[in-house]
Protein: Membrane protein
Amino acid sequence: MGSFLKQLGQRVGNDEVTGLSAQLAYFLLLSLFPFIIFLVSLIAFLPVSQEDIMNTVSSFAPDSTMRLLEQNISSIVSDHNGGLLSIGILATLWSASNGVNAIIRALNKAYNVDEERSFIVARAVAVVLTIAMVLVIAVAFLLPIFGKSIGLYIFSIFGLDEGFLTVWEALRWVISLIIFFIVLLALYVLAPSKKISIKESMAGAGFAAVFWMIASLLFSFYVNNFGNYSATYGSLGAVIVLMIWFYLTGIIIITGGEINAMLNERKKGKKAS
Structure:
């Protein structure tokens, strides 16, 4: 275990994981507000309220980040018009696919391969992955609503109405973990310019899903109780907190890819010997 962690630490330094994570955080920030425009515009066509979305995000995001998001959502809702949906879709796809491109470069570096796909193919992969992530995130917002309604109906048949609420509170975290695991698994399989199986990607996806959830909760607790970024950065404090959260997310996602690449190399080394 010690040698594994030591080698992982060396790979993280050699492959410039922190620098690539900073790039990813930048593109995530750029895509966030177009995504909010898209999501808010889409709410009109879905049985989901603004409160449902904010309650889901608030499970992981610090309070200052939530206030920033709520202010922007309120502004978008007040200026809402029909054209926002198409603009939001295009802006989200372009900005978020740049973030996925940063992940593609990072994973290619982890596997020590060059990008052999053409620009069009690589961009298409990034866009497809972005669309998939948006759909999965939408499902993540819908599941708590419909899942709870379906669960209450099923439990009521057996006369277990009250007990379900306790069970659902635990299941909510499990569902979030599974959804994030699926998104990461798709990224680790499709993003690198190399054929990677689902089985070879599961270790990194499991690590990243669990550690992202833990890191998000711990970071949120720290910012809400101890960190005072507004005193240092003033009105930019909420944006800085958001950037740090995205930066931690980038480090965890790329480190998960490094774990997959390292296990892949060790497997090949055993076969060769």
Observations:
- The chain has one domain: 2-272.
- The longest helix spans residues 119-157.
- The CA atoms of residues 108 and 114 lie 6 Å apart.
- The mean pLDDT is 75.
